[in-house]
Amino acid sequence: MPRTDVHWTRKILSACEKNPTDAYQLNYDMHNPFDICAASYRPIYRGNRDWQGCHRLKDQPTPIPLMYYGKRK
After folding, report:
1. Average of per-residue pLDDT across 22-40
2. Whole-prediction pTM value?
3. Which residue has the higher pLDDT, 49 or 14?
4. Res 32: pLDDT
5. Distance between CA atoms of 73 and 6, rounded to whole angstroms?
6. What positions does the domain Coatomer alpha subunit C-terminal occupy (predicted)?
7. Spatial distance between the Cα atoms of 59 and 49, rounded to a whole number of angstroms
8. Residue 37 — φ and ψ, nearest 5°?
9. How far apart are the first and last CA of the chain?
10. Residues 16-55: b if buried by 16+ CB within 10 A, e if exposed
11. 33: CB partners within 8 A, 6+ apart
């Protein structure tokens, strides 16, 4: 049994060493103030009217509160 675990661990380590990055491309404009949709983690920019449905999940009757990022004016 231990040989199988060691072999599996070495396979995983080998795959991880081929691509040693965990960077994730973020889709937002850092110069434009925005809120973050707590359901999809997508930015909701100031003045955007499409945010109403963003924070509702199909199986959840109440909206999830928005997390705010940035300065409020």
Report:
1. 77
2. 0.37
3. 14
4. 84
5. 57
6. 8-51
7. 23
8. -70, 125
9. 62
10. eeeeeeeeeeeeeeeeebbbbbeeeeebbeeeeeebeebb
11. 45, 46, 69, 70, 71
